[in-house]
Amino acid sequence: MRPSPVPEDRLLVLLYHNVGPSPGHRGLAAHWTAPEMLRAQLRWLRTLGHSFVDAEWVKDRAAQATKTPPLPSSLAREWRGGSRPTLVTFDDGQANLYSYALPVLEQEGVPALVFMVAGRIGGLTDWEAPSRWRSNPLLTWEQMREMQQRGVTFGSHTLSHPRLTDLPEEQWRRELAQSKLLLEEGLGRPVDTLAYPYGAFSPEIGQVALEMGYRLCFSTLPGLNTPDTDPAALRRMNVRRHGGLWLFRRKVGRMARIG
Ligand SMILES: [Zn+2]
Fold first, then answer.
1. What is the greatest pairwise CA distance in the chain?
2. 20-68: pLDDT as tens digits
3. How far apart are the CA of 169 and the centre of ligand 1, in A?
4. How many other CB atoms are there within 10 angstroms of residue 95's CB atom?
5. Residue 108: phi, psi to the nearest 5?
6. Distance between CA 105 and CA 97 in Å, rounded?
7. I need a surface site. Which of 5, 40, 142, 146 has the fewest CB within 10 A?
8. Ligand 1 mean position, distance from CA 75 (Å)
């Protein structure tokens, strides 16, 4: 087996949406991963020397890094204590994660971070135009509390899944603040991670999110992360269904080339 193209000291963050049998519709199917494909991808990474970490691990290492004096910019600081640390994230929090992703994650011993649309919990994915996509059920509070017991951490994907950069400041501030509060009340734990819907953010939005107490904010910018990566603009690899494991492998290689 060839070694992973990812350097040992880089953090790879995977972005998934749905896990389950494909819904058939071609455009929609791109955001679905079959449970066996999820398992195959996780196992492939592990075989190549990736270690799966949770959000706490990333926060701890990032906090340590900010306490040590910065190195020359050509020498990015290393994530210590994990070789090719890899964080698995899911956006939107659809109900299929409970039925199909959770068993795979548990069996493989992989922690996960799921970003919830806080104002839609127990509802439907009604933020997309109904003519384009079928609405899907979202996780309920009960399912989320059980998943929390079984190794899943939850973060905010805002209140209503808007493109934050299209909103006036007052509204995007509310999306960030209220979603955090709602999730903390419902889960009984601090919520300090955020994923921007559609990956849309600005330097100002990122700065305000950090001021509000978010410690890790995930974009959809491709690439890998170091402890020096802006915590308001962490990079992720968007996993898509087409191409299966072959495309997944190619994409990991592309993230490594971006750095
Ligand atoms: Zn989303």
1. 53
2. 987 666 555 668 899 999 999 999 999 999 999 999 999 988 777 666 6
3. 20
4. 18
5. -90, -5
6. 10
7. 142
8. 34
Q: How far is the CA of 152 from the centre of ligand 1 (A)?
A: 18
State the residue for tokens 């997309």: 128
Pairing type for strands 237-238 and 18-19 reads unpaired
Q: How far is the CA of 160 from the centre of ligand 1 (A)?
A: 10
Give 145's contacts (C-beta < 8 A, 6+ positions apart): 187
Q: How far apart are CA 95 and CA 99, in angstroms?
A: 7
* Domains, the chain, with CATH or none: 12-258 (3.20.20.370)
**Distance from residue 25's CA to the centre of ligand 1 (Å):** 18
Q: What is the pLDDT, as a whole number, of residue 179?
A: 98
189 CB-near residues (< 8 Å, 6+ apart): 148
What is the pLDDT at residue 32? 85
